[in-house]
Write a structure and sequence with these properties.
By secondary structure, the chain is mostly beta strands. 9% of the residues lie in helices and 43% in strands.
Length: 355
Protein backbone atom coordinates (compact mmCIF):
# COMPACT_ATOMS: atom_id res chain seq x y z
CA UNK A 1 0.00 0.00 0.00
CA UNK A 2 1.31 3.43 -0.93
CA UNK A 3 1.93 5.93 1.88
CA UNK A 4 -0.67 8.68 2.00
CA UNK A 5 1.99 11.27 1.13
CA UNK A 6 2.69 9.43 -2.13
CA UNK A 7 -1.02 9.13 -2.91
CA UNK A 8 -1.40 12.89 -2.53
CA UNK A 9 1.25 13.48 -5.19
CA UNK A 10 -0.78 11.44 -7.69
CA UNK A 11 -3.50 14.11 -7.66
CA UNK A 12 -1.35 16.05 -10.11
CA UNK A 13 -1.60 13.37 -12.83
CA UNK A 14 -4.97 14.49 -14.20
CA UNK A 15 -8.36 15.89 -13.18
CA UNK A 16 -9.96 12.43 -13.00
CA UNK A 17 -7.28 11.24 -10.57
CA UNK A 18 -7.67 14.45 -8.55
CA UNK A 19 -11.40 13.80 -8.07
CA UNK A 20 -10.89 10.10 -7.35
CA UNK A 21 -8.20 10.74 -4.74
CA UNK A 22 -10.28 13.50 -3.13
CA UNK A 23 -13.11 10.97 -2.71
CA UNK A 24 -10.66 8.43 -1.26
CA UNK A 25 -9.31 11.00 1.21
CA UNK A 26 -12.84 11.83 2.37
CA UNK A 27 -13.52 8.15 3.10
CA UNK A 28 -10.12 7.83 4.79
CA UNK A 29 -10.80 10.75 7.14
CA UNK A 30 -14.29 9.41 7.91
CA UNK A 31 -12.80 6.05 8.89
CA UNK A 32 -10.23 7.75 11.11
CA UNK A 33 -12.95 9.73 12.93
CA UNK A 34 -14.94 6.55 13.54
CA UNK A 35 -11.97 4.62 14.92
CA UNK A 36 -9.99 7.26 16.77
CA UNK A 37 -10.58 9.85 19.47
CA UNK A 38 -9.41 13.09 17.81
CA UNK A 39 -6.34 12.78 20.06
CA UNK A 40 -2.67 12.55 19.18
CA UNK A 41 0.00 11.36 21.57
CA UNK A 42 3.71 12.13 21.55
CA UNK A 43 6.69 10.36 23.07
CA UNK A 44 10.41 10.01 22.38
CA UNK A 45 13.40 7.67 22.53
CA UNK A 46 17.10 8.40 22.57
CA UNK A 47 18.50 6.12 19.87
CA UNK A 48 22.16 7.19 20.09
CA UNK A 49 24.41 9.74 21.79
CA UNK A 50 23.57 12.38 19.20
CA UNK A 51 20.10 11.38 18.01
CA UNK A 52 16.62 11.44 19.56
CA UNK A 53 13.48 10.28 17.78
CA UNK A 54 10.04 11.69 18.49
CA UNK A 55 6.93 9.64 17.71
CA UNK A 56 3.49 11.02 16.88
CA UNK A 57 0.61 8.58 17.40
CA UNK A 58 -3.13 8.64 16.92
CA UNK A 59 -5.06 7.26 19.87
CA UNK A 60 -7.91 4.79 19.30
CA UNK A 61 -10.95 4.21 21.47
CA UNK A 62 -9.27 1.14 23.00
CA UNK A 63 -6.09 2.99 23.91
CA UNK A 64 -4.10 1.49 21.02
CA UNK A 65 -1.53 3.83 19.46
CA UNK A 66 -1.03 3.97 15.69
CA UNK A 67 2.21 5.63 14.55
CA UNK A 68 1.68 8.65 12.30
CA UNK A 69 5.19 10.12 12.14
CA UNK A 70 8.75 9.60 13.33
CA UNK A 71 10.82 12.77 13.69
CA UNK A 72 14.61 12.65 14.24
CA UNK A 73 16.40 15.40 16.19
CA UNK A 74 20.16 15.83 16.50
CA UNK A 75 21.52 16.74 19.93
CA UNK A 76 24.95 17.83 21.08
CA UNK A 77 27.09 15.88 23.53
CA UNK A 78 25.98 16.25 27.16
CA UNK A 79 22.67 17.83 26.17
CA UNK A 80 19.34 16.65 27.55
CA UNK A 81 17.13 14.70 25.16
CA UNK A 82 13.87 16.59 25.51
CA UNK A 83 11.43 17.09 22.63
CA UNK A 84 8.14 18.95 22.95
CA UNK A 85 4.88 18.73 21.02
CA UNK A 86 3.17 22.09 20.67
CA UNK A 87 -0.58 22.57 20.30
CA UNK A 88 -2.25 21.43 17.09
CA UNK A 89 -3.37 24.30 14.84
CA UNK A 90 -5.51 23.66 11.72
CA UNK A 91 -4.29 20.07 11.53
CA UNK A 92 -0.61 21.06 11.81
CA UNK A 93 1.69 20.43 14.77
CA UNK A 94 5.03 21.92 15.76
CA UNK A 95 7.65 19.69 17.41
CA UNK A 96 10.89 21.06 18.85
CA UNK A 97 13.94 20.31 20.98
CA UNK A 98 14.10 24.10 21.69
CA UNK A 99 16.75 24.56 19.01
CA UNK A 100 15.28 22.84 15.97
CA UNK A 101 11.62 23.33 15.04
CA UNK A 102 9.62 21.07 12.71
CA UNK A 103 6.13 22.00 11.52
CA UNK A 104 4.32 18.86 10.38
CA UNK A 105 1.09 17.54 8.95
CA UNK A 106 0.77 14.08 10.56
CA UNK A 107 -1.79 12.85 8.02
CA UNK A 108 0.18 13.70 4.88
CA UNK A 109 3.65 13.26 6.39
CA UNK A 110 4.81 16.70 5.21
CA UNK A 111 7.52 18.31 7.37
CA UNK A 112 8.92 21.85 7.18
CA UNK A 113 12.10 22.37 9.23
CA UNK A 114 12.72 25.91 10.43
CA UNK A 115 16.23 27.34 10.60
CA UNK A 116 17.88 27.41 14.02
CA UNK A 117 17.01 30.48 16.04
CA UNK A 118 20.11 32.40 17.24
CA UNK A 119 20.35 32.26 21.02
CA UNK A 120 21.30 35.41 22.99
CA UNK A 121 24.59 35.08 24.88
CA UNK A 122 22.92 35.55 28.28
CA UNK A 123 20.36 32.76 27.64
CA UNK A 124 22.38 29.91 29.13
CA UNK A 125 19.60 27.46 30.08
CA UNK A 126 17.38 26.14 27.28
CA UNK A 127 14.78 24.94 29.76
CA UNK A 128 13.84 28.57 30.42
CA UNK A 129 12.72 29.11 26.81
CA UNK A 130 9.02 29.73 26.17
CA UNK A 131 7.26 28.83 22.92
CA UNK A 132 4.15 29.57 20.88
CA UNK A 133 2.65 28.36 17.59
CA UNK A 134 -0.37 29.81 15.82
CA UNK A 135 -2.08 31.04 12.68
CA UNK A 136 -2.92 34.54 11.45
CA UNK A 137 -6.21 34.11 9.51
CA UNK A 138 -6.11 37.55 7.88
CA UNK A 139 -2.57 37.14 6.58
CA UNK A 140 -2.93 33.37 6.08
CA UNK A 141 0.37 32.74 7.85
CA UNK A 142 1.62 30.28 10.45
CA UNK A 143 4.04 31.70 12.98
CA UNK A 144 6.32 30.29 15.68
CA UNK A 145 7.27 32.46 18.68
CA UNK A 146 10.28 31.86 20.91
CA UNK A 147 10.93 33.68 24.19
CA UNK A 148 14.43 33.68 25.74
CA UNK A 149 15.20 34.64 29.31
CA UNK A 150 18.36 34.82 31.39
CA UNK A 151 18.73 32.39 34.27
CA UNK A 152 17.49 33.51 37.69
CA UNK A 153 19.78 30.91 39.30
CA UNK A 154 22.75 32.64 40.97
CA UNK A 155 21.65 35.82 39.24
CA UNK A 156 22.39 38.95 41.31
CA UNK A 157 19.67 40.89 39.48
CA UNK A 158 16.18 41.03 41.00
CA UNK A 159 13.54 39.04 39.13
CA UNK A 160 12.13 42.10 37.37
CA UNK A 161 15.60 42.85 35.93
CA UNK A 162 16.01 39.44 34.26
CA UNK A 163 16.51 39.82 30.53
CA UNK A 164 13.94 38.68 27.97
CA UNK A 165 14.17 38.50 24.17
CA UNK A 166 11.49 37.55 21.64
CA UNK A 167 11.95 35.99 18.20
CA UNK A 168 9.40 35.17 15.48
CA UNK A 169 9.52 32.93 12.42
CA UNK A 170 6.83 33.05 9.73
CA UNK A 171 6.28 30.01 7.52
CA UNK A 172 6.49 30.92 3.86
CA UNK A 173 9.05 31.78 1.24
CA UNK A 174 11.33 33.54 3.76
CA UNK A 175 11.97 31.07 6.56
CA UNK A 176 13.99 33.23 8.92
CA UNK A 177 13.83 34.40 12.53
CA UNK A 178 13.52 38.05 13.43
CA UNK A 179 13.46 39.90 16.73
CA UNK A 180 10.21 41.40 17.98
CA UNK A 181 9.43 43.58 20.98
CA UNK A 182 7.90 41.97 24.05
CA UNK A 183 7.31 42.50 27.76
CA UNK A 184 9.96 41.94 30.38
CA UNK A 185 8.36 39.33 32.61
CA UNK A 186 8.10 35.61 33.19
CA UNK A 187 5.48 33.41 31.47
CA UNK A 188 4.48 29.77 31.84
CA UNK A 189 5.97 27.22 29.41
CA UNK A 190 2.67 25.99 27.97
CA UNK A 191 0.46 28.10 25.73
CA UNK A 192 -2.81 27.92 23.78
CA UNK A 193 -3.79 29.30 20.40
CA UNK A 194 -7.26 30.80 19.94
CA UNK A 195 -8.76 33.01 17.22
CA UNK A 196 -5.56 34.51 15.86
CA UNK A 197 -3.72 34.96 19.17
CA UNK A 198 -1.34 32.98 21.38
CA UNK A 199 -1.86 33.04 25.16
CA UNK A 200 0.39 32.26 28.13
CA UNK A 201 -0.12 32.49 31.89
CA UNK A 202 2.30 35.18 33.09
CA UNK A 203 3.68 36.42 36.38
CA UNK A 204 3.99 34.78 39.78
CA UNK A 205 1.52 34.62 42.65
CA UNK A 206 0.06 36.82 43.95
CA UNK A 207 0.44 38.80 40.72
CA UNK A 208 -0.66 36.61 37.76
CA UNK A 209 -2.31 37.53 34.49
CA UNK A 210 -2.66 36.32 30.89
CA UNK A 211 -0.21 37.40 28.20
CA UNK A 212 -1.65 37.64 24.67
CA UNK A 213 0.30 37.85 21.41
CA UNK A 214 -1.78 39.01 18.44
CA UNK A 215 -0.43 37.18 15.39
CA UNK A 216 -1.90 39.73 12.99
CA UNK A 217 -0.23 42.93 14.27
CA UNK A 218 2.50 41.10 16.28
CA UNK A 219 1.90 42.96 19.54
CA UNK A 220 1.59 41.82 23.17
CA UNK A 221 -1.20 42.77 25.55
CA UNK A 222 -2.24 41.55 29.00
CA UNK A 223 -5.59 40.33 30.34
CA UNK A 224 -6.56 40.01 33.99
CA UNK A 225 -7.75 36.78 35.59
CA UNK A 226 -11.26 36.30 36.95
CA UNK A 227 -11.61 38.33 40.14
CA UNK A 228 -12.07 35.27 42.34
CA UNK A 229 -8.67 33.92 41.22
CA UNK A 230 -6.75 37.17 41.19
CA UNK A 231 -3.87 36.92 43.64
CA UNK A 232 -5.16 33.69 45.21
CA UNK A 233 -4.89 30.78 42.80
CA UNK A 234 -2.58 30.28 39.85
CA UNK A 235 -4.51 28.67 36.95
CA UNK A 236 -3.51 25.10 36.15
CA UNK A 237 -3.69 25.69 32.41
CA UNK A 238 -5.25 27.62 29.57
CA UNK A 239 -7.49 25.84 27.08
CA UNK A 240 -9.96 26.42 24.26
CA UNK A 241 -13.60 25.37 24.35
CA UNK A 242 -16.51 26.48 22.16
CA UNK A 243 -13.91 28.48 20.21
CA UNK A 244 -13.28 30.68 23.26
CA UNK A 245 -10.30 31.11 25.56
CA UNK A 246 -10.71 29.23 28.85
CA UNK A 247 -8.93 29.03 32.19
CA UNK A 248 -8.77 25.64 33.90
CA UNK A 249 -8.24 25.67 37.65
CA UNK A 250 -9.48 24.13 40.88
CA UNK A 251 -12.20 25.41 43.18
CA UNK A 252 -10.66 28.08 45.47
CA UNK A 253 -10.87 25.72 48.45
CA UNK A 254 -7.84 24.14 50.14
CA UNK A 255 -6.95 20.70 48.70
CA UNK A 256 -9.92 20.80 46.32
CA UNK A 257 -9.55 18.91 43.04
CA UNK A 258 -12.92 19.93 41.62
CA UNK A 259 -12.14 21.36 38.17
CA UNK A 260 -13.50 24.78 37.25
CA UNK A 261 -13.53 26.03 33.66
CA UNK A 262 -13.82 29.78 33.15
CA UNK A 263 -14.68 31.03 29.65
CA UNK A 264 -13.96 34.47 28.22
CA UNK A 265 -17.03 35.82 26.44
CA UNK A 266 -16.98 38.07 23.38
CA UNK A 267 -17.12 41.16 25.60
CA UNK A 268 -13.91 40.12 27.40
CA UNK A 269 -15.62 39.11 30.65
CA UNK A 270 -14.88 35.85 32.46
CA UNK A 271 -17.78 33.49 33.16
CA UNK A 272 -17.59 30.38 35.34
CA UNK A 273 -18.88 27.94 32.71
CA UNK A 274 -18.41 24.48 34.24
CA UNK A 275 -17.67 22.95 37.64
CA UNK A 276 -16.62 19.28 37.47
CA UNK A 277 -16.45 17.44 40.82
CA UNK A 278 -13.47 15.14 41.27
CA UNK A 279 -15.94 12.32 42.04
CA UNK A 280 -17.12 12.47 38.43
CA UNK A 281 -13.84 12.57 36.52
CA UNK A 282 -11.25 11.27 38.97
CA UNK A 283 -12.06 7.69 39.91
CA UNK A 284 -8.41 6.89 39.16
CA UNK A 285 -6.99 10.07 40.67
CA UNK A 286 -4.64 9.59 43.63
CA UNK A 287 -4.49 12.53 46.07
CA UNK A 288 -0.97 13.78 46.68
CA UNK A 289 0.47 11.48 44.02
CA UNK A 290 -0.88 12.83 40.77
CA UNK A 291 0.21 15.55 38.45
CA UNK A 292 -2.25 16.31 35.70
CA UNK A 293 -2.94 18.57 32.78
CA UNK A 294 -6.29 19.42 31.25
CA UNK A 295 -7.10 19.91 27.56
CA UNK A 296 -10.57 21.01 26.43
CA UNK A 297 -12.51 19.94 23.38
CA UNK A 298 -15.23 21.87 21.55
CA UNK A 299 -17.42 18.76 21.79
CA UNK A 300 -17.67 19.41 25.55
CA UNK A 301 -15.00 16.92 26.50
CA UNK A 302 -11.86 17.35 28.55
CA UNK A 303 -8.71 15.26 28.56
CA UNK A 304 -7.16 14.94 32.02
CA UNK A 305 -3.64 13.52 32.13
CA UNK A 306 -3.02 11.35 35.21
CA UNK A 307 0.59 10.39 35.81
CA UNK A 308 -0.19 7.60 38.27
CA UNK A 309 -2.21 5.51 35.78
CA UNK A 310 0.14 6.13 32.86
CA UNK A 311 -2.62 7.62 30.74
CA UNK A 312 -5.61 9.91 30.70
CA UNK A 313 -9.23 10.36 31.65
CA UNK A 314 -11.53 11.45 28.80
CA UNK A 315 -14.50 13.15 30.47
CA UNK A 316 -17.74 14.20 28.76
CA UNK A 317 -19.07 17.33 30.48
CA UNK A 318 -22.66 16.87 29.25
CA UNK A 319 -23.12 13.14 29.84
CA UNK A 320 -20.80 13.17 32.90
CA UNK A 321 -19.20 9.96 31.66
CA UNK A 322 -15.49 9.37 32.17
CA UNK A 323 -13.30 6.95 30.22
CA UNK A 324 -9.83 5.91 31.43
CA UNK A 325 -7.38 5.61 28.53
CA UNK A 326 -4.18 3.65 29.13
CA UNK A 327 -1.47 3.80 26.52
CA UNK A 328 0.23 0.65 25.23
CA UNK A 329 3.75 1.99 24.80
CA UNK A 330 6.73 1.35 27.05
CA UNK A 331 8.25 4.73 26.23
CA UNK A 332 7.79 7.83 28.34
CA UNK A 333 4.70 9.67 27.09
CA UNK A 334 5.40 13.39 26.90
CA UNK A 335 2.00 14.79 26.07
CA UNK A 336 -1.36 14.29 24.41
CA UNK A 337 -3.66 16.81 22.76
CA UNK A 338 -6.83 16.99 20.72
CA UNK A 339 -6.26 16.95 16.98
CA UNK A 340 -8.33 17.53 13.85
CA UNK A 341 -6.47 16.51 10.72
CA UNK A 342 -6.65 17.92 7.23
CA UNK A 343 -5.00 16.98 3.94
CA UNK A 344 -3.90 20.46 2.90
CA UNK A 345 -0.17 21.00 2.32
CA UNK A 346 1.61 23.28 4.77
CA UNK A 347 1.21 26.83 3.55
CA UNK A 348 -2.11 26.24 1.78
CA UNK A 349 -4.94 28.59 2.63
CA UNK A 350 -7.01 27.64 5.65
CA UNK A 351 -10.67 28.55 5.22
CA UNK A 352 -12.07 26.85 8.29
CA UNK A 353 -11.84 27.82 11.94
CA UNK A 354 -9.09 26.47 14.10
CA UNK A 355 -10.00 23.74 16.51
Amino acid sequence: MLPLKSVMKLKCVCKAWWLLIDEFIGLYLKRIKESYLDIIVFDQTRVSDDLVEGYVYSLSTGGVLATLMTLPFRITEGEGAHIFLMQSVNGLICVTNLDEFKVCNPLTGQVVTLPECPRPLYSNIKGLDRLGFGYSPLKDEYKVVKIFQSSCINNPLPHEKIKFDYALCTLGSDLSWRKIKGPNYFSQFSFVYCNGSIYWIAGLLPDCWILEFDLENETFTSTSLPFVLDGRIRPKSLAVMENCLCIVTFMPVEHSRDIVIWRMDDDGKWVMKYVIPVAEYGQCWRPGNDQFWVNCLDKHKILVELVSIGGWILYDIKSKASQPIHHDTKNCIKTACFYWGNMLPIGAQQSRKTK
